[in-house]
Every structure is written in C-alpha cells, then in structure tokens.
Amino acid sequence: MRQSRRCCPGSFCQPGRQERHEHERIKPLGRAGITPTKDMAWYNALGQGMGETLLTSNEKGAYTLADRGTYLSMKDKLSNLIVVVGGNSIQDNKDKNLLNPYGVLAVDPGKHPGVNFDMATKFVQWITSLDTQKMIGSFGADKFGQPLFLRRF
C-alpha cells in the first residue's frame, strides 16, 4: 500500500475500472469489514489507470494499492508517496495477500473454434520455461534496483 506524505486522514484512491484487479484491490478493505461505495466521501474510484491513480494519490495525499512495477516505473514523479505496507522490495513483502499473480493458459479449440491452439501452446511453454521465468524475475532490476515482477518458480 502506498500513502502520500501529505495524507488526508482516510482518503483512498483506486482506478475504479471494474476489472478483476479492482476486486483484488479492495479485498484488504473487505477483510477490515469495509465495503466501499461511491457514496463514501473518503473513497475515490477514479475510472483511470494505475498510473493516473498513483499521480492522483500523490497530489491529493491519499492512500492507494498499487502494483510494484507501476510504482517503481513512476517513482520519480511520486515524491509525496511512501510505501506503508508490502516493504520496499518484493523480497521485503511478507504479506501473501499483496501478491498479484498472473496466469496463462491455452483456450480449448473445441469450445472456441478458430483459435490458434498450436501457437497458444507454444506461448504457454515459452512463458513458463525456466529461462523465461529467470528473465521475468530480473526484469527492471538494472534500472530500478529491484525486479518489477516476481517469477513463478
């Protein structure tokens, strides 16, 4: 979780684009017994991407949940934000609830005619290979001092 150094008590911003990640971003609030709605003055569903949400949180002094990759790539523009939960690196993050895993699968050509199943299978094999996972696990480290993504294995 990122917090602005100029934080207004309790203000929270999120992209608010009604996608899978939105549900994941508000899960910590749910675990605290809070179901945010647009009627709550402290809750700001912006209808923007993560980059714009980070910039808005920085400007308004609000909390937000952000992926580490976007945060690190924009950190120079976010002078008022600090990390309050999740540590300063992937290795420092001990809270498994804050991990944001991605998955890949080939679509069943029997249910979805016209898909290129052979190409999809090759992509799945490539992305899950040890060499590719090593590249993913080191991506960004040279520029940001730490990887932007956590490799699967």
Number of DSSP E strands: 5
Number of helices, where a helix is a run of at least 4 consecutive DSSP H or I residues? 6
User: What is the first-to-last residue Cα distance?
Assistant: 25 Å
**Radius of gyration over all CA atoms, rounded:** 18 Å
How much of the sequence is in beta strands? 5-15%
Q: How can the largest sheet be summarized? A: 5 strands, mixed
Structural class based on helices, strands and sheet pairing: alpha/beta
Helix content: 25-40%
Mean pLDDT: 85
Largest beta sheet: strand ordering: 3-2-4-1-5
- The residue ranges in which pLDDT falls below 50 over 5 or more consecutive positions are 3-8
Report the order of strands and helices.
Answer: EEHEHEHEHHH
Based on Cα principal axes, name the global outline: globular
Structure characterization notes:
The chain has about 150 residues and is α/β, with parallel strands linked by helices. It is built from 6 helices and 5 strands; from the N terminus they run E-E-H-E-H-E-H-E-H-H-H. It has helices at about 20-30, 50-60, 70-75, 115-125, 130-140, 140-145; strands at about 1-5, 10-15, 45, 65, 80-85. Strands 3-2-4-1-5 form a 5-stranded mixed sheet, covered by helices on one side. It is globular and about 50 Å long.
Present the secondary structure layout.
Elements: E1 2-4, E2 12-14, H1 20-31, E3 43-45, H2 50-60, E4 63-64, H3 68-74, E5 81-83, H4 117-127, H5 130-138, H6 141-144
Parallel strand pairs: 2-3, 2-4
Antiparallel strand pairs: 1-4, 1-5
Q: Could you name the key traits of this structure?
A:
5-stranded mixed beta sheet, alpha/beta, 5 strands, single chain, globular, disordered N terminus
